[in-house]
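Appendix C: a fully annotated inverse folding record. The material below is reproduced so that readers can follow the format used throughout the book. The structure is listed first as tokens, followed by the designed sequence.
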């Protein structure tokens, strides 16, 4: 027996595997099952059938006292020469092409997958008998974590073609080869594989437990698929949509959550590759906007990364994601066509998600235009039924403060204060011309409010005389208007932006200035915030009727501070005391 060296730095390879390639040592169970399964496939391609009788094609035998796991298959097997090629030239640059070809021939058997066992063990032992030639000898390969291996003819040959792999865990990693852990991992990784896979506790001949041959969720009948979703994802779905992308062999099932889900980041999906579990947090095959679904997918012909825990980022993967998104939209359209309580619940629960979809996708934007109900000053209205001109408030507070005012003037104000609302409303403005969409402007709204009627001129002058000195002290301008509804007592208008002065610009551009030898004198711009008082309101008219000047002034202060609250501003401590004092004096005077 000759001890030989791997043609790589094995310690370096194991370091890379543990820190940069695999997310957890648990993958060694998956890799051993994958190797065994690939060996069976390779033997079938050879035109042979495994003579296993009643024995399962793949067995996992846990020997807890020895901290060992044995994985046995009746697959293609290896010759001594193949073992040297596949198990000793990993990563060698001069052999990379040969190794890649060998991996294709053997569908991934051994290679890096086998080396994953070094994450939990210092030694791996393989006995294998090739099915490629009759009466082939059994080769015995032992690999060590120090970078050496031996290959000999086995003293105890296998009775039939196939492979046995022994993994003996280090003491500190014994938990990875416990029966409960191996059974759990085997069931998770290989549950959907069609080949029978059995986990045994010891080699006592007990039947063990078959952990594979579970029906994929996309092949289950409706109620069974919903039960699978509840058991796997922990949610009772509102609906389920089939996913089928034949060009890539991708198929699956999308489950619509019956509960609201945060739209900031969608959770990942459960992805399989040829029945083998890949990940339950994959984000590559479903668009980011589809936060309302959890998806189980078979990745078909899409290529896995070296870790087999995700998909290689290719143009085909991006095309599949786009097609999955299209099929999700189609599923929602079908749900809308059905009508009824399910779609109403969908709209209620996933309104934020719908807006996220519409903001990212023009096709979904059309769906939202037809079905999504916007909160407006005229009630709940879909965009498709809105008038030709609308404005939107950028916050919920702004909408609440101005909805009745806009409605009373014959306009429509839309609440754009929820997540994604503004993006969707602006998208509406870009893609269609029927409805003119604009940002609500308090200044423009004020300019459109009616001036007081002539018959109220005497009262207007009295009110201005009382209010102006009080507001000047506060650094606030005054505007008096006469508008509906009378329930709106006052409005707060913030100061104009600092810097550009439209009045000065107009004077500078006066074409007659040069001819007359002077400049046009424009009215100075009042840059203070403004209080608008509604002279139609009884409470505003009562200011002038107050018995004393002090009560009149306190009433003006109260109206100003109430306008700030209505505009969504928070009062500071001094303003809170002023409002409390004003209301106190007014209440005492009224008794």
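Designed amino acids, in order:
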């Amino acid at each position: 027996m000759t001890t030989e060296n791997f043609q790589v730095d094995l310690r370096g390879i194991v370091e890379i595997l543990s820190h940069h390639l695999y997310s957890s040592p648990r993958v060694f169970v998956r890799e051993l099952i994958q190797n065994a399964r690939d060996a069976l496939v390779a033997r079938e391609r050879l035109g042979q059938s495994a003579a296993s009788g009643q024995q399962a094609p793949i067995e996992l035998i846990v020997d807890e006292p020895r901290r060992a796991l044995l994985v046995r298959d009746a697959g293609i097997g290896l010759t001594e020469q193949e073992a040297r090629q596949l198990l000793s030239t990993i990563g060698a640059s001069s052999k990379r092409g040969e190794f890649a070809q060998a991996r294709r021939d053997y569908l991934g058997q051994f290679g890096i997958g086998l080396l994953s066992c070094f994450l939990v063990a210092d030694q791996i032992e393989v006995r294998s008998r090739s099915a490629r030639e009759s009466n082939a000898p059994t080769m015995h390969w032992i690999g060590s974590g120090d970078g050496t291996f031996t290959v000999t003819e086995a003293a105890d040959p296998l009775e039939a073609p196939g492979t046995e792999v022994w993994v003996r865990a280090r003491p500190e990693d014994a938990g990875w080869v416990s029966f409960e852990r191996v059974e759990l991992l085997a069931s998770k990784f290989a549950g959907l594989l069609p080949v029978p896979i059995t986990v045994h506790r010891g080699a006592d001949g007990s039947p063990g437990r078959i952990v594979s041959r579970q029906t994929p969720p996309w092949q289950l009948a409706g109620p069974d698929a919903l039960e699978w979703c509840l058991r796997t994802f922990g949610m009772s779905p509102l609906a389920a949509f089939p996913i089928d992308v034949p060009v890539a062999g991708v198929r699956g099932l999308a489950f619509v959550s019956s509960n609201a889900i945060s739209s900031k980041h969608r959770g990942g999906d459960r992805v399989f590759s040829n029945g083998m579990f890949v990940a339950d947090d994959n984000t590559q095959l479903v668009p980011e906007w589809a936060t309302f679904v959890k998806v189980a997918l078979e990745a078909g012909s899409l290529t896995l990364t070296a870790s087999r825990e995700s998909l290689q980022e290719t143009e085909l993967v991006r095309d599949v994601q786009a097609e999955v998104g299209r099929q999700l939209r189609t599923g929602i359209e079908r749900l809308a066509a059905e009508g009824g309580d399910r779609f109403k619940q969908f709209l209620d629960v996933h309104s934020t998600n719908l807006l996220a979809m519409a903001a990212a996708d023009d096709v979904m934007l059309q769906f939202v235009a037809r079905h999504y109900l916007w909160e407006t000053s005229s009630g709940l209205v879909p965009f498709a039924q809105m008038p030709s001109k609308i404005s939107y408030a950028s916050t919920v507070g702004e909408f609440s403060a101005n909805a009745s005012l806009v409605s009373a003037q014959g306009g429509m104000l839309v609440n754009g204060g929820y997540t994604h609302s503004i993006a969707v409303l602006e998208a509406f403005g870009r893609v269609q011309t029927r409805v003119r969409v604009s940002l609500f402007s308090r200044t423009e709204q004020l300019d459109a409010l009616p001036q007081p009627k002539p018959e109220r001129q005497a009262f207007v002058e009295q009110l201005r005389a009382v209010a102006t000195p009080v507001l000047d002290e506060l650094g606030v301008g005054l505007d008096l208007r006469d508008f509906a509804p009378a329930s709106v007592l006052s409005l707060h208008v913030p100061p104009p932006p600092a810097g550009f002065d439209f009045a000065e610009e107009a004077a500078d551009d006066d074409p007659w200035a040069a001819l007359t030898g002077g400049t046009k004198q424009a009215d100075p711009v009042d840059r203070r915030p403004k209080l608008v008082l509604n002279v139609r309101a009884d409470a505003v008219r009562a200011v002038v009727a107050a018995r004393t000047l002090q009560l009149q002034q306190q009433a003006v202060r109260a109206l100003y501070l109430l306008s700030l609250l209505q505009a969504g501003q928070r009062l500071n401590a001094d303003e809170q005391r002023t409002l409390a004092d004003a209301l106190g004096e007014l209440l005492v005077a009224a008794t």
